[in-house]
Amino acid sequence: MLDIAIKGGMVVDGSGAPAFRADVGVAAGRVAVVAREVGQEAARTIDARGLYVAPGFIDPHTHSDLPLLVDPRAESKVRQGVTTEVIGHCGFSPAPLAGAAVEETRASAAKLGLDVTWRSMGEYLDRLREPGTALNVVPLLGHNTVRGSVLGYDDVQPTPEQQAEMERVVEEAMEQGARGLSTGLYYPPGYYARTEEVIGLARAAARHGGIYASHVRSESDLVVEAVAEAIEIGQKAGIDVEVAHLKLEGYRNWDNIGRLAAVLDDVQARGLRVGFDQYPYVACGTWLAAMLPYWAQAGGSRAVADRLRDPQVRARLRQDWEENRAEWDNRTGVRDWSDVLISDCPSRPEVLGQRSPRLPRQKARTHWRPPLT
Question: Do the bridges between strand 82-87 and strand 57-59 make them parallel or antiparallel, or are there none, so unpaired?
Fold first, then answer.
């Protein structure tokens, strides 16, 4: 006897085949039969005529690491049919934590009313399991978090001993349940890392069957070169590559999609396992300070906030905006401040939905939040 019989729906089975009309039988929490007509008795029957029936969707790129601790029911995802989330993207993960990364994560968690009681990846996953979640969770560990734990958030290069320590941290996190390494080479401190550093960490993840997911260094003028770097890392580390939210920022680059597609087609034709994900809308989201030159982003969120309070720094930024507009555009694809829409600012709810030039002037207050890319 079946637990559930879903009758008469159009089945999209995830294989890439066209939708087909069928019944679906579920027993003991698993799909037991898919057939034109299921005649077995069932404890519950769902009439799916006029509806589509599909396996649970996988959201391959999310930043739900901390929100799942607050809302383990994850209704915003479940109601969209998502049953699996991949977290820890863009180089940012809630674990493993040491050094300067502890304070960065603590500040972010405090906005959600969370106390950071964990340090290792294993301790974080145990915290996630305490109430359980409505979703399956695939955790990645973030390069920026690892780098922040060992080197801090400044523009520095690791000594051989520090490189070895970062690789050890990756190995330990993989042993405790991480499924791969993510980078956010667009963001400090990941931006300061040289390719060789990332290859070493990716090799450590590869030894445990992990993947490498990268928010690449550029998504505008240098996007082709940035994707090529991700491919190089995958080749030299012997690891499967996922290019995160593949896109072309900046109107000057929109006609480069052919070049970008050719790069990906070429590597796949050579048998390399390189994939990508995309979101189906024509905007992107991140924290506002990501627009700033990299010298202004160094040191972590508190350092950024303190720096922006300095009138001389603000004057330097205004001058830089006027003299180096192409560089600003290359970082974000934003031609003008009117392109920026404020979507999240707990400290000033009155600015939500406004564009930057229309915001009332107020003493700068900068708060850390993970990138919503």
Answer: parallel
